[in-house]
Amino acid sequence: MAAVAVAENTRVFLLDIEGTTTPITFVKDILFPFIRENLEEYLSAHWEEDECKQDVHLLKKQAEEDVRQNKAGPVHAVDQTVHTDEEKAIREVVDSVVWQMDADRKSTALKQLQGHMWRAAYTAGKIKGEVYQDVAPAVRRWRHRGLKVFIYSSGSVEAQKLLFRYSVQGNLLDLFDGHFDTNIGAKVDSKSYENIAERIGCQPEEIMFLTDITREAKAAEDAGLNVAVVVRPGNMELTEEERKHYTIVTSFNQLELSGNI
Ligand SMILES: [Mg+2]
Asked: What is the C-alpha separation between 180 and 185, in angstroms, rounded?
């Protein structure tokens, strides 16, 4: 593993999660399937609670909006196994959520319910956030040298915090100075990285961004950040050209701070 020198003027590390700090499979094979598998049980258990009522209300408003805009929705067949109005109502919410997930919708209504289900699962110990072994020790070294470390992920800030708060390595939340999600802008839009620099209060070139996705790396680079592309098992293959253009690391341990930092 060759060492990679981090630019001397670096003051901040900005980290992606999926494919960078955390295996892509954790999100794809654990977090999202958990929603599908536990949705009906979760709704039944929490149906009468205010938070769940609000989630359902938001989902219904979303479904009405979809109908108005002529977007296809789930077709409700008459379900012979359903015996009460509540069961029928839950069934409809389940159908709607599954339909939205199949269509890869990113609606606020869907994200809110998912967030609440994950929170319940993490706090009950049913899910633990996966973080690569090299991440926490490296981040602690950087912070010890006075650098700041932020997260930028398309998962909501709340979901990000749950992952690190309830990780396989214990509570890792104190590793980070702050979190950004797509409220600051899309990860493939270079303006987002300018916004982040402004929010942190530093120059773009003082930030080192680590991600597995080259479109995100390109956007960050265009905004003036330094970038390295992280290659982890199961990440998308890079082209020959991308391998030539970008600094590649397979572990955070390869990133070496200069004596001046
Ligand atoms: Mg990623």
From this structure: 9
Say how many Å lie between the CA of residue 211 and the centre of ligand 1.
6
* Structural contact between residues 138 and 145, judged by C-beta atoms closer than 8 angstroms: no
Per the structure, the complete domain to which residue 48 belongs is given by 28-123
161 and 116 share a domain? no
Q: Are strands 178-180 and 248-249 parallel, antiparallel or unpaired?
A: unpaired
Report yes or no on 10 lying in a domain.
yes
Distance CA 214, CA 228 (A): 9
Task: Using a CB cutoff of 5 Å, list residues around ligand 1, an ion.
Answer: 16, 18-19, 212
Compute the C-alpha angle 14/18/24, nearest 5°: 155
CATH number at residue 42: 1.10.720.60
Q: Residue 13 is part of a domain; what is its CATH number?
A: 3.40.50.1000
pLDDT in tens, 132-157: 999 999 999 999 999 999 999 998 89
What's the half-sphere exposure (Cβ side, CA atoms, 13 Å) at 240? 0
191 marked ligand binding residue: no
Quote the ligand 1 centre to 199 CA distance (angstroms).
Answer: 21
pLDDT tens, residue by residue, 80-116: 677 788 999 999 999 999 999 998 888 889 989 999 9
